[in-house]
Amino acid sequence: MLERLTTIVPHLSRNVSLKSTVNVSEVQKFSGMASEWWDVNGPLKAIHSLNKLRTPFFEQGIRSRQKSTVANARQAFPLAGFKVLDVGCGAGILTESLGRLGAEVTGIDPSEENIEVAYRHAKRINLRNVAYEANTIEHFQTCNSTLFDAVIASEVVEHVDNPELFIEKCSESLKPGGSLFITTQNRTAASWALVICGAEYIMNVVPRGTHDWNKFITLDEMTSILDKNNCQLRQLRGYTYNPFLNHWDWIKSTDINYALHATKTV
Amino acid sequence: MKGFSLLSKYSNTIHNWRLNYSTASRSSHYDIIISGGGMVGFAMACRLGRSDCLANKRILLLESSNKKQLKLDSYNHRVSALNPGSKSLLESLGAWQHIEKTRFGSVKKMQVWDACSDAAVTFGKADLSEDIAWIVENDLVQDSLMKELDKIEQVEVQYKTKVTNYRLPQNADELVQVTLEDGSCLTTDLIIGADGFNSGLRQTIKTQYISYDYNQMAVVATLRISEGDENVTAWQRFLPTGPIALLPLNNEFSSLVWSTDKITAKSLLDLPPDVFTDRINQALWNNDDRNPMVQNVSERIFQMLKVCRVNSLEGNASDIRQLPPSVVEIKGRQAAFPLGLGHAVDYISNKAALIGDAAHRVHPLAGQGVNLGFGDVIALNDTVCEAVNNGADHGSSLYLKQYQSNRQLHNLPVMASVHGLHLLYGTTWTPLVMLRSIGLNVFDSLSSVKSFITQRASV
């Protein structure tokens, strides 16, 4: 019903024909996992172990572009002084890791259930520099004047409708020179074989139906969207998952998954 | 379809006090608690305290006994043979400088031989140019670590504090609860058990513990040895009842570690000094256990190998067979401690990790016990730092599992070898004696294999 409404209502933004990035069934799928998010050995264990790879990537990327506003940011809190937006934060798995490194993080997610789980979890472990909001990026960006040092959309863009609008709104939330990080799957035969067949059907390390191969974005499509939003690509790396060891590794090939760091041109 | 409220905000602005399940106040919560203050426990506290990424963490060490005052008027009986890895660790913690200024024995050569056949292996350079191990009194190691720990502000030590109960969390959001003898309760995100082979934490973890009582005791004493060359050789003779070892302390004194069955050990403990000294010399020198047939064969092979070894590049210490010193007298009284094998199948649990003897216990015949413990210290610190650098909870099982696999991969082969040697040298059955004697002579001539083994035992 929501999708029909959005095709009728005229859009206000530049080149896109839909007003929303939210795919309702996707949101429901993730809301249904609310109780399992924080089980490190549960169905979402791969996302937990992904932090080992992606958190240092984001942290090093942020610090490589900007100096912290906090004088002498200690090694214990390398991201102190940075404002970070985690878009599609789910139950806060990435958000918390950035918070522990000292960043002032805001996590947004369209699922109220997930935001509630995220909030409760952060409160339980007394993490004071994270804030959560049940919201979409397009509404958040419209209602909020805050601009961020970094916006991260990790394992999200393959779940949204209208990725062009999504990335546009992400980049609009950035300070000039700010960092945009995206980690997602490439739409290739290799990713179909490994991410869909391999991970979801053969090895069962990711719940079935988590990913829709048709929504994966190729690198060409992604770079074109970034260009349109005046975001300059700084770093691009491929990564892959070892289901036997529950371990992620950086690899040269970006055919399966890729992680990118772009900065908003001043 | 459920509509979402656009303006629902869940904002976390928690201030200074911590929320946790025991509702204990901030002063009773620590980020990391180490239970047990021996050499390994203190090394763990120092290492964590010196890691930059842990600068904001509150660390507590709980030790059940009083703060020890180091006595240096005579040599303490309990010594350890530190390998290069352990020495590096102590250097990095700033503790080695205290040991260096005080006293330690250098081992530049090791000779190990079989009482049943005189087959022997030597380690080390012929010119005695390199240290292969260092003999340091356990109390001195501990005292040196304590001195350094005093300088680290965020690490607190509580002496005379006994833990009566551990309660490990059921899920990742809960904290560990530690109950003390006085009834007070502490909480932590990670409890490290450095509480020895009778570890209370290990019993709480309820891991399968494979243990084997050797029915042996190690008799220890400080001995004055006969004057001769520089005392830089460690001697170990495998008697059928167990190995007897002399570890150099300085040119005048060596430390005795004589592993033998409980009955013999208890009788040795009761002996007056002069009789005890005689018994040591007999154990080192007499040939009662020698098997003539094996001796014959083994000697021929030794000569054969000597001829083949003409082209060895480095001066191999085994080219020169030395005789051990004789013992002049014992200084002070002898003492003894029991020996056993122990292996915890799980080194970790929810927000808990075991290090040192709490996780593994070995026979002293290879001098590896505390070296394995120091290796655990380095590995666990690296694991905790990796977790913190990745923004993870430092008690996270995702990381602790790594610590467990790394250490078990390293420790198990060492433990198996040590146990294997104990079994192999515990028999007088001729075929096995023959096999081990020939094997030892052959092994002795393979310098590259020996270097490999030495290098593996160095970390």
TrEMBL record, chain A:
Protein name: Ubiquinone biosynthesis O-methyltransferase, mitochondrial
GO biological process: methylation; ubiquinone biosynthetic process
Signal peptide: none
Binding site for Mg(2+): 155, 158-159
Organism: Daphnia pulex
Chief localization: mitochondrion
Cofactor(s) the protein requires to work: Mg(2+)
Known partners and oligomeric status: Component of a multi-subunit COQ enzyme complex.
GO CC terms: extrinsic component of mitochondrial inner membrane; mitochondrion
Compartments where located: Mitochondrion inner membrane
Any one Gene Ontology molecular-function term assigned to this protein's record: 3-demethylubiquinol 3-O-methyltransferase activity
Amino-acid positions noted as binding S-adenosyl-L-methionine in the UniProt annotation, renumbered to this chain: 54, 88, 109, 154
UniProt record similarity statement: Belongs to the class I-like SAM-binding methyltransferase superfamily. UbiG/COQ3 family.
UniProt-listed HAMAP family: UbiG (MF_00472)
Gene3D superfamilies in UniProt: Vaccinia Virus protein VP39
EC code: 2.1.1.64, 2.1.1.-, 2.1.1.114
Short name of one Pfam family: Methyltransf_23
Its biological purpose: O-methyltransferase required for two non-consecutive steps during ubiquinone biosynthesis. Catalyzes the 2 O-methylation of 3,4-dihydroxy-5-(all-trans-polyprenyl)benzoic acid into 4-hydroxy-3-methoxy-5-(all-trans-polyprenyl)benzoic acid. Also catalyzes the last step of ubiquinone biosynthesis by mediating methylation of 3-demethylubiquinone into ubiquinone. Also able to mediate the methylation of 3-demethylubiquinol into ubiquinol.
Alphabetically ordered keywords of this record: Magnesium, Membrane, Metal-binding, Methyltransferase, Mitochondrion, Mitochondrion inner membrane, S-adenosyl-L-methionine, Transferase, Ubiquinone biosynthesis
Pathway info: Cofactor biosynthesis; ubiquinone biosynthesis
Membrane topology, from the record: Peripheral membrane protein
Domain of life (superkingdom): Eukaryota
Catalytic activity line of the entry: a 3-demethylubiquinone + S-adenosyl-L-methionine = a ubiquinone + S-adenosyl-L-homocysteine; a 3-demethylubiquinol + S-adenosyl-L-methionine = a ubiquinol + S-adenosyl-L-homocysteine + H(+); a 3,4-dihydroxy-5-(all-trans-polyprenyl)benzoate + S-adenosyl-L-methionine = a 4-hydroxy-3-methoxy-5-(all-trans-polyprenyl)benzoate + S-adenosyl-L-homocysteine + H(+)
